[in-house]
Structures are given as C-alpha cells and as structure tokens.
Model the fold of this input.
Amino acid sequence: MTTTLFRPVGLYELALIWDSGMREFPPRLSQQPIFYPVANVEYATQIARDWNTKDESSGFAGYVTRFAVLTSCLAEFEPHTVGGPSHLEYWIPAEQLPAFNASIRGVINVEAAYFGDGFKGCVPEMFNLKGKDVVSQFVTMSKTWDYSRTDFVGEVSTNRKAVFLNFLFWAQVDFTPLGIEIARRDAVVQRIKEAWDFNPIEVRLPLIVTPRP
Done:
C-alpha cells in the first residue's frame, strides 16, 4: 500500500529532482537536517504560492509536487501539525532520506506551479535557446514553429529539462505585450506538448491547471 504526499519545491530543487529522473528528492544541505513532505495539497500550495515565489533561493518559483510512498515506510515517522489543522507534515531526518526515496513508487509529479516577478526560469545551454531567459525562450520557440517544425521538435528534445521546468510558466503568462496573443500562446504550448511526446520518455509534461488563488 502507498500513501500520497506532497512537497512544495523551488526551481533549483525541482531541477535536481529532474536529474534523478523525477524519482527522488536531493540530499539535504548541511543546514537542512530535516526533510518535510506534507500530507495535503492545500498546505503544499500555500507554501509554494505564498513563500517560494518570494524567495530568491527558490528561483522565485513554487512547484507543488505529488508522489506516492510506501505506507510501511511512512509509518515510522510521526506526523506533526504546524499552525492550522491542515498544516500536517512529516519530519524525515536527512540521514534517512535515501531510504525514504527508495520507498517512493513511480515518478514524482508536478501538480501546479506559481511564479514571482523575479523568475528567470531554467536557462538552456544548447541550440537556439542557449543563454535565454524564460520569456525569451518562449518568443524564440514561437518564431521557430513558423519557420521550421523540425527545429522546433529538436529544441524541445534537446532542452527537455528547461522545457519541463518552464512549461507551466509559459502556459500561464500573458505574452500579448510581446506580440503573442493568447490564442497564439496556447497553440505554441500545445505544439510543445506534441513535440515532447514525439520522442516519448517516461516523464510527462505537467498538466496545465488553473493555479489556486
């Protein structure tokens, strides 16, 4: 049996989760003796939306992750209520995180994402997106789709990490001031999804959902 848990993470932690194939959380830093997964999406959303988006060390982004862990593993950790009744979290000592990761079943999913004004996104190191911030990447992708479908698919396949981390930002932001109308934005987002699936991998792009206010 498994139990579903949630964890709010910033841009850089999600990048490390991606590097693991979306299968484990990265080791704690020396000043982080405890790993804190939470028991419900509402609590994770509150932290991701209200805290991570204002935090430079989180890249001004908050992602809500969902994952399933073996109930037998979770049973050895006592849940703690911090603040309100919905603020239920588990305290996993850093030295026990590897065993906790081993008990995760399936991939870690991204449920939603929230972004602050300082968000620059994951910056690719290859092809036409190299060195561009998250907004410039989308403008480039929009133009690429017009002149070369092959290059468009190549950009997505080569820069999957950046596409994964930036995708929900692209799906939410109004690019109208840059000459990209909402309908055009949505069409490019759909083409990115199709390009992602053209060469399928186990990790799927996050589903586009309306963020909670």
Observations:
- Helices lie at 11-19, 41-50, 71-74, 97-102, 134-147, 149-158, 160-172, 182-198.
- The mean pLDDT is 94.
